[in-house]
Design goal:
Blueprint: H1 2-22, H2 30-48, H3 61-76, H4 89-99, H5 101-121, H6 127-188, E1 192-197, E2 202-205, H7 207-216, E3 231-232, H8 246-251, E4 256-263, E5 270-280, E6 286-295, H9 297-333, H10 339-367, E7 376-379, H11 380-398, E8 401-404, E9 411-414, H12 416-432, E10 439-446, E11 450-457, H13 478-482, H14 491-501, E12 505-511, E13 515-523
Parallel strand pairs: 8-10
Antiparallel strand pairs: 1-2, 1-6, 3-4, 4-5, 5-6, 7-9, 10-11, 11-13, 12-13
Helix pairs in contact: 1-2, 2-3, 3-4, 3-5, 4-5, 4-6, 5-6, 9-10, 11-12, 12-14
The structure holds adenosine-5'-diphosphate (ADP).
Adenosine-5'-diphosphate (ADP) binds near residues 459, 470, 490 and 493.
Length: about 525
């Protein structure tokens, strides 16, 4: 309100100052004094009135009253100023800008009255005086119309801008939401994602790939760039030249699929399958690439284990089968041979056939989900003695001593055949993974609830990396696989299942080069 009123107030005060200097007698004119006082009163009203509590259009009284101010001032200074009517432009602009067409109409009416009323009471008008009442209101009306058109166009521009602004804001919110969705998706998928621009600079990298990179970062490397990473070829040992790194290939514009690489050093190396796709800009030029890394370590390991298993099982079958076929051939080819000798050959063939049968049973137990257990009251000391007796011959032939420290009866409810299977497996492993001069010791003890036994050897031992994996089906440690020690990686898996089927547990501890201890704990079961 004050801003709209001030131009008139300031202009009128300037007129007053000029009048005071040029024609001081005008200041005594009652009409002029009324005009200045009314103008000051209206200005004070603009400041003091509670406009926000009053109806929206109540401001209109001020510009309308301004017409009265101008009418009196114009009349009082008619001798000295001919152009004071121009002050009409201020209320006219105000009304046209705020009231639209109604403001234009009021502007016309107000300026016409300002000119016409004094003429009605004054001397009869001359020829130029006839034109004045028409000219000034017409000019003011044109100004009001121009202001109205200008304000309307500004208002409509404003509305358009506001609409655009709202649309932009909505699009921005949507893009933020999409960005959050994308970030969440990228962070929950188990695939590493790395995007680079055409110059090879990082655009985006999800958490999974940051983890992959942390495996491959070299301690003390000067930077954290792609070329600093410890990336190996698929064989796991040949370092990949920086130019062959998946991201470097992708940044060079290559698209590829299932490019196998290994991140990190031997101990916790992961096998990653990388796939890259190039991006293009709207002109079709290369704009960068997205590379996805899937962790296929378990899959690759499973394949290696399967290949190993096939090789081992073939070997395990072949050796006894060759022996059976060989001895049967001898018996058939030499019918006149000493019957005792013949029987000895047949017994060897039989023992190898039993070995094969044992192997097949192991395979069946390993692959079947269920396991028959027929518990009965048994003395663990007795079962240990039986297993030790049957293992003694094999141990002796390898130069390994067996020490049986289980000297007291230990009763429990368990399936004796299955407990024997556990003992046989642990003893046979202890002998198999020992060398001449080593010792295998078997101990047993009880607590109020359980009976336990341990098989300790002083053999080759198991590395800390392999220890958690030894109960996994088909697992054989690297050192064992590279040596000529036979086996298929089924025994400990079966042992664990038997023990757990009895409600017990098995643990292993070992030191490479010093030997291993396997401890089995079984619940005693019902007392009767
Ligand atoms: P297998 O002996 O036929 O390979 P097992 O399931 O019995 O299969 O054993 C799994 C792996 O655990 C073995 O290949 C070997 O690496 C390791 N292992 C088991 N027992 C011993 C032991 N007493 N000493 C050293 N390593 C052992």
């Amino acid at each position: 309100m004050l801003v709209s009123q001030l131009p008139l107030t300031v202009s009128l005060l300037m007129v007053t100052a000029i009048v005071a200097a040029a024609r001081p007698e005008t200041l005594k004119d009652a009409g002029f004094q009324f005009s200045v006082l009314l103008c000051l009163g209206l200005t004070a009203m603009c400041v003091l009135a509670p406009w926000n509590l009053l109806p929206a259009k109540s401001f209109v009284v001020v510009p309308i009253a301004d017409f009265v101010v101008i009418a009196f001032a114009r009349e009082a200074t008619a001798q000295s100023f001919t152009s004071l009517g121009l002050l009409l432009v201020f209320p006219v602009i105000w009304l046209a800008a705020r009231l639209g067409k109604m403001g234009v109409a009021l502007s016309f009416l107000g300026s016409a009255l300002v000119v016409a009323v004094p003429m009605m009471f004054g001397p009869s008008p001359g020829a130029t005086d006839v034109a004045r009442p028409i000219l000034l209101p017409s000019i003011m009306t044109v100004i009001a119309l121009a202001i109205h058109v200008l304000v309307s166009s500004i208002v409509s521009q404003d509305a358009k801008l506001e609409h655009k602004d709202a649309e932009l804001r909505r699009a921005y919110e949507e893009s933020l939401e999409r960005q959050r969705l994308l970030d969440t998706m990228l962070d929950i998928v188990g695939v590493g994602v790395h995007a680079v621009d055409a110059a090879g600079n990082d655009i985006l990298m999800n958490q999974q790939h940051r983890r992959n990179r942390s495996l491959a970062s070299r301690p003390g490397a000067p930077g954290s760039g792609e070329q600093e990473l410890n990336i190996m070829a698929s064989d796991g040992t040949t370092p990949l030249p920086p130019g062959r790194h998946p991201v470097a290939r992708a940044a060079a514009g290559q698209s590829f699929s299932d490019y196998l690489i290994r991140f990190g050093s031997q101990a916790n190396q992961r096998v990653l399958s990388s796939t890259a796709r190039a991006m293009t800009d709207k002109e079709g030029n290369f704009a960068g690439s997205v590379v996805a890394f899937s962790d296929v370590t378990e899959f690759v390991n499973a394949l290696a284990i399967k290949d190993d298993f096939v090789a081992n099982i073939s070997h395990e079958f072949r050796t006894p089968l060759m022996s059976i076929v060989g001895y049967l051939d001898i018996v058939l080819d030499t019918p006149d041979e000493d019957p005792e000798q013949q029987e000895a050959f047949l017994r060897i063939a039989q023992s190898n056939a039993e070995k094969l049968l044992g192997l097949v049973s192991d395979l069946l137990s390993a692959s079947s989900d269920s396991m028959d257990v027929h518990p009965q009251k048994v003395d663990l000391q007795n079962l240990i003695a039986m297993s030790v007796a049957s293992a003694r011959h094999r141990a002796g032939s390898r130069g390994v001593e067996i020490v049986n420290d289980a000297r007291q009866p230990l009763w429990l409810t368990a399936d004796p055949g299955r407990v024997n299977q556990v003992l046989d497996n642990l003893l046979s492993n202890a002998i198999k993974y020992s060398q001449a001069g080593d010792t295998v010791t078997i101990r047993a003890w009880e607590t109020p609830e359980n009976v336990s036994f341990s098989v300790t050897d002083t053999g080759i031992g198991i590395s800390q990396t392999d220890l958690p994996k030894i109960f996994t089906r088909y697992f054989r440690s690297n050192s064992v696989r590279e040596s000529a020690i036979p086996g298929v990686g089924l025994g400990l898996g079966i042992v664990k299942r038997i023990v757990e089927n009895h409600g017990g547990s098995i643990t292993a501890s070992s030191m490479p080069g010093s030997g291993s201890t396997f401890t089995v704990t079984l619940p005693k079961g019902p007392a009767s």
